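agent: user wants the full assembly modeled, not chains individually. Plan: 1) parse entity lines 2) check alphabet per entity 3) run joint structure prediction 4) return tokens. Steps 1-2 passed, two entities, 529 residues total. Proceeding.
--- entities ---
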Amino acid sequence: MSETLSPATEAESASAQARADAPPRTWWRRKGLTSVISTASVIVVLAAWQLCASQGVVDAKLTSSPWGVVQAARFLINNGQLGTDVASSASLFGVGIGLAIAIGAIGGVLIGWWRLAAAVFEPWIAILYSMPLIALLPLILVWFGISFSAEVVMVVLISVFPVLVSVITGTRNVDKELVRLARSFCGSELAVIRTVLLPSLIPYFVAGVRLAIGSALVGVVVSEYFLGNSGIGGLIVTAGENLQSGEVFVGITILALSAIIMTGLLRRAERRISPWRND
Amino acid sequence: MSATVSLTAVGKTFAPGARPVLDDINLEVCPGETVTVIGPSGSGKSTLLNCIAGMEPYSGSIAIDGEQVRKPRPSVAMVFQAPHLLPWRTAAGNIAYGMQLQGVVGKDDQRKRVDELLDLVKLRDARDRYPAQLSGGMQQRVNIARALAVRPSALLMDEPFGALDAISKEHLQAELQGIVSGQRLTMIFITHDISEAIFLGDRVVVLSSDPGRISAELRVGQPRPRSLEWKRTAEFQEFYSFLWKELQQA
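--- prediction returned ---
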């Protein structure tokens, strides 16, 4: 049998390592121009907006302009309002999404793993997830008054479901064969959850959190509109009522940027904690 | 120490009232012996193995070293048909997995054992690679190493080479003998490949289908480890045609 004792050669794994690295088909993608084109797209739209506003094609009073937005931002920074608003929205967002992620992740694993928990909670998830939760706002107002806790409740309600539903799906989709394997090695229930379920949940968890970021921002703005008239949401509403379009856009820009930045950070964090997925 | 596995009147029915998948299986596997079980698909080969592993309820009696099997036990390791490696663990991490679940081996001993096994299955260079970076044959070696790492006294293998190409398969069959020879293992090996069954088994058991019953048994006298040349001998061919005929009736 000596001639069969071949070490696992590089060649044996070559096919496994050769990933589908086919060159892109269009010339601009081959040249790596995708990001250049995307950047140009944003610049062109901003320039067109500026041009239309300064040439009087549209009423700058109503539409503002990129430069007008910059000036409005400067004004709001200098009088200190922007700092206060951002801090207030950020703390609401942080507390809200933090609770939503914790509840969604833990609840999702429990509901996905144990059928009894699923039987108990799933009808409520189905009802709440499919209805526009903003409809609950008046009730929250009645129960919690105009307060920080009322705002937090709204944010949690609106952002918990993406995490919860995604983690439930991930838990149900866990590789049953890996679970069997762990049990064949006498793994306890807790060990199976820790070594098989949790690592395989990472992509589902991240997808849920990504959606939750967007939902939580909606929750922040909505509850600030209606429950406190504070923070970025309050800024936008007040500026709109005073026909300060520039200030409205400052608020919108901050919301958009923070969503983009958080999603980007999340993607980077995911890649760091899952090095086995080389994509 | 290698284990004795005794099956007495083992039966298995999935739904009450349904036809049994396994019926009246009697089999005694001696310490250090390799028994290969061959049968057409649907003959309940895998089910039989799952019962022996304590992963499924059954009727009758299955005893390992005189003790009734009711749930998985640390002294029995299972190698599944697909490698089922944890994608988030490297080759070394996967080999250590079984030991970690059983929690009997200290960290340092774990590392030493992993290195031993990486050498044994000739994957030392692949130590830190993730499963996605390993070929099918390499993954299956990790799978086997993971099972051996817990120092089982019995190894249950469920068509572990079924998904491999003919050449990798022959290599691994030959290697498996070398790997196992130093370990004093009792082995039950499921396959639907006649020549694999003869090549690896001290005894070949034919399982008929619907219901799964032992319909024939063949003792292969050739001492192990065996060379691939032995496969080309008249003796081997005789075994092959005997089993082929038995399978036609199974």
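agent: reporting back. The mean pLDDT of chain B is 90. The longest helix of chain B spans residues 166-181.
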